TrEMBL record:
Gene3D superfamilies: MFS general substrate transporter like domains. GO terms for biological process: transmembrane transport. InterPro entries: MFS_trans_sf. SUPFAM superfamilies: MFS general substrate transporter. Coiled coil: none annotated. It is found in: Cell membrane. The keyword Chaperone does not apply. The chain crosses the membrane at residues 12-35, 47-64, 76-97, 103-126, 138-159, 165-183, 213-236, 248-269, 276-294, 300-322, 334-358, 364-385. This is SET family sugar efflux transporter-like MFS transporter. It comes from Allosediminivita pacifica. GO terms for cellular component: plasma membrane. It is a multi-pass membrane protein.
């Protein structure tokens, strides 16, 4: 019965996997392409990232308003896939800095909005097939993590074997599959039906709760992004591990992450989402301290497993937590979640560089642990202020 209820949603998950794999192939590869293939200085990656993420954040907000207003989602997903295909094709034909900073940054930025759009639609698709939203959110997050296990590894393998331009050609082929699946899998009249507002909830109060939930997500997302920026160099340069160690650590992390995500519906039903997230935040603090103390290869593997555990729990719980404050606007809440994740990523790179310039990359990890430690206090502050608002109302 359990698997039967999910079977109609498998094509939708495959559509999400294909679109996510496209982004996973290109997002981490663009830094290598700009610096190594085009010979640009490293700061140029910050320029590209700012343009690309800024485009995505603005697009997420615009599409969220349209989705919550009842607009059809089908053309939005197709627009994302078409933009990705355009950027990948043009860069494979004209591999230049001007192309990357114009068509590449804007079209890849538009295409990255598909993550928020698909998650906004996922809740409605789950309800159509009587699957709990929290459970389907976990499947969607696990699908995304699986795509990120495959995408970056495949891109760098192809670049090493056939050259960087082949990555854009391969990703363009995958984008064609994405477009075919979009046309055949997604209902052309599909809309993300919003659940009704919470009974007795004030729109102003719920908006405040959403902002505090976003602040909690932002703290943990920043901590994770700082670790992603610092760990590869920390392991190789400061610990002295072999050059392949960071890649192996990332594979271990994402492998454990998938299993952790699948456990989140059970945690929500047994302990509640707030308690589960508080425990996850404390686990994040401890895990980052463990990674900062790594001295050997086995310790690195253990730290990567712990990182996958806490981030998988955070990924599965976080989006459901933010969506719980939707007040009839789930797409806006979902866009808020993804914008927090993306903005934290673009801020983490320069911040990690400045901290490492001041001290070292181990110091970046200690700072990340401190940032993660602020998350429980942000949640406690939000809960306390929300209760005070309700009692005085």
């Amino acid at each position: 019965m359990r698997s039967a209820s999910l079977r109609p949603l498998v094509p939708f998950l495959f559509l999400q996997f294909t679109g996510t794999a496209c982004g996973a192939m290109i997002i981490p590869f663009m830094g290598f392409f700009l610096v190594e293939a085009l010979g640009q200085p490293p700061w140029m990656l910050s320029v590209y990232s700012a343009m690309m993420v800024g485009t995505t954040v603005a697009t997420n907000r615009l599409l969220a308003r349209r989705i919550d207003g009842g607009a059809q989602v089908f053309p939005m997903v197709g627009f994302s896939a078409a933009c990705f295909l355009t950027a990948a094709t043009v860069l494979s034909l004209i591999p230049a800095l001007a192309t990357a900073l114009t068509i590449g940054a804007f079209c890849f930025g538009f295409s990255a909005s598909a993550a928020s759009t698909m998650f906004s639609l996922g809740g409605s698709m789950a309800e159509r097939h009587t699957v709990p939203r929290d459970r389907f959110n976990a499947y969607m997050r696990a699908t995304m993590s699986t795509a990120w296990m495959v995408g970056p590894a495949g891109a760098f393998l192809v670049a090493d074997a056939f050259g960087p331009l082949m990555v854009f050609r391969l990703s363009a082929l995958v984008a064609l599959v994405w477009l075919v699946l979009w046309w055949r899998v997604l209902p052309h009249d599909v809309r993300a039906d919003a659940p009704g507002p919470v009974q007795g909830a004030s729109p102003v109060g719920m908006a405040f709760d959403l902002r505090m939930a976003a602040a909690f997500i932002f703290c943990l997302a920043c901590a994770h992004a700082l670790c992603l920026a610092a760990l590869p160099i920390f392991y190789v340069r400061e610990v002295g591990l072999p050059g392949y160690a960071p890649g192996l650590a990332f594979s271990v992390k994402t492998f454990i992450e998938v299993f952790a995500i699948f456990s989140t519906p059970v945690l929500i039903s047994r302990f509640g989402i707030k308690r589960s997230l508080l425990a996850t935040a404390l686990l994040a603090v401890a895990t980052i301290q463990v990674m900062a103390a790594v001295e050997t290869f086995p310790q690195m593997v253990a730290g990567a497993a712990l990182e996958g555990l806490y981030f998988g729990l955070f990924a599965g719980l976080g989006i459901s937590y933010v969506q719980s404050f939707a007040t009839g606007r789930p797409a806006a809440a979902t866009a808020t979640y993804w914008n927090c994740m993306m903005i934290s990523g673009i801020l983490a790179g320069p911040a990690a560089g400045l901290i490492a310039q001041w001290q070292d990359f181990q110091a970046v990890l200690h700072v990340a642990s401190g940032v993660a430690l602020t998350a429980p206090f942000v949640m406690a502050l939000g809960v306390g202020l929300s209760r005070r608002r309700r009692t005085t109302a």
